[in-house]
Amino acid sequence: MTRTFGDRLILALLIGAAFVWMMPMLWVLALSLKPNAMLVSSTRGIVPWPHTLENFATLLRVSLTPRWLLNSVVVAFGMTALTLVLSSLAGYAFARIDFPGRRAVFLLVLAGLMVPEQAIFVPLHTMFASWDLHNTYFSLIAPRLAAPMGVFLMTQFFKAIPSELEEAAQLDNASRLKIFWSVMLPLSRPALTTLGIFTFLFAWNDFLWPVVTATQPEMYTLSVGLGSLQGNFAMSEGLGFLMASAVFASAPMLVLYVVFQRYIVQGITMTSGK
């Protein structure tokens, strides 16, 4: 298909806008690869020459960064897996099972979207302190499993699936659990992928609750640990060290989004229909 002048103009504007949007990230990456001795005199330019990996080596050498990375991986994967299980089960129930009080319960779940997370930090802290569960993976994961947006997303997706597929399975004497596992879940892969990516991103970047429940450095997540380094090492290690920590924390998320971006678009498109 031949592109018109208007199409080319729009494409050029989008490319320009994308480049402008990427400039801060490129600048941070360039600073992380420059020697600190050079950054003292100037921080201009996005071409890291001469370049060095010393800032990243320092990041791994002077802190518990490998342990914080492990903590973030455990928390992010654990929270994502459990959220997918709970949200898909709840979404299927709200979309396909006619039980008493379904509408009222669904509205109650959605009401959780209106509660600021900061409003429940004090009771959560008190509860986990009374159970002596602070500084554990359980305390880092459990409070975030209540995901009203995930339930809403899965409910909308299951509603959009034709009911004839479920009725055909029922004619074959398939149980409700069998229908959910063999019919509905395979069809909901785009929505599950979208919810999984959003949950993983949230868990990886979460700062407020981990900084409340994790008081021992060994239990810091990557965001909390790198945040603590800014005060301790910013002046001694230099600007390149801080930029290296920013790249180290954000690179996995950028790769994850680039790899799964088509699933995100597909999931949001299909759940915004019916």
UniProtKB/TrEMBL annotation:
One of its GO terms (biological process) is transmembrane transport. It is found in: Cell membrane. The chain crosses the membrane at residues 9-30, 68-92, 104-124, 136-158, 179-204, 239-260. The keyword Transmembrane helix applies. InterPro entries: MetI-like (IPR000515), MetI-like_sf (IPR035906). The keyword Membrane applies. Pfam families: BPD_transp_1. It comes from the Bacteria. GO terms for cellular component: plasma membrane. Signal peptide: none annotated. Keywords: Cell membrane, Membrane, Sugar transport, Transmembrane, Transmembrane helix, Transport. Belongs to the binding-protein-dependent transport system permease family. PANTHER family: ABC TRANSPORTER PERMEASE PROTEIN MG189-RELATED-RELATED, SN-GLYCEROL-3-PHOSPHATE TRANSPORT SYSTEM PERMEASE PROTEIN UGPE. This is sn-glycerol-3-phosphate transport system permease protein UgpE. It comes from Archangium gephyra.
